[in-house]
User: What shape does this take?
Amino acid sequence: MADVRIIENLRAVRQKIERCCDRSARRIEDVELVCVTKEATVNKIEEVLNLGIKVLGENRVNEACEKYRYIGDRASWHLVGHLQTNKVKDAVKIFSLIHSVDSVRLAKKISEEAGKLGKVQDILVEVNTSGEETKFGISPEETPNFINEIVLYPNIILKGLMTIAPETDDPQKARPFFRILRQLRDEINRVRDTQYTIHILSMGMSGDFEVAIEEGSNMVRVGRAIFGAYSKKNYA
Ligand SMILES: *Cc1c(COP(=O)(O)O)cnc(C)c1O
Assistant: This one.
């Protein structure tokens, strides 16, 4: 039985994305919805696939691999959470995009493991736009140099930047951090040679994706607004 809440939630999210695109003169096809399934069971994932979801976001490699055994390549898999080097080998097997590259060591390891599979791994650099100490990511100031270092690794391709705004009950408060990420991307593209033009801005979650789209996001990562608040009973 399809979960009516999921159907309605997803419809509402898509409608918001659409309206936001209208308002900010963006095309709906230009904003990718990554459905964050980190707390969702395989059954719930099946439901969103039936509703046309094409991209799943997970934040733990082990859990994603477990779900991948059932879902396989019926969706693309994105790693949105932090990646430890000892999980890279498994991560490159299933993820089409890794959003959370935040150290040279990690980039090097991803390139090595992808190389062993004969794969070139798409990645994003995670930027800590808020400077919050609890957050992973490279500071905006260090990001251009960081990128210069990691693009030398042969089996990764840098596609863009990702950020997580501070948690707040007022989405407007997230706006400056999204703006920082967009400006950083534009600045990086301005000074780099075009071979390395980066496009993706992965920003915006359940609480703030509309503001993120207004600020130029072209990839939103939405979990709770689709599946309901995280609590085990919602995912039984
Ligand atoms: C959980 C998570 C999301 C989704 O958050 P929601 O608030 O449930 O939409 C997005 N990005 C990352 C990195 C996450 O860990």
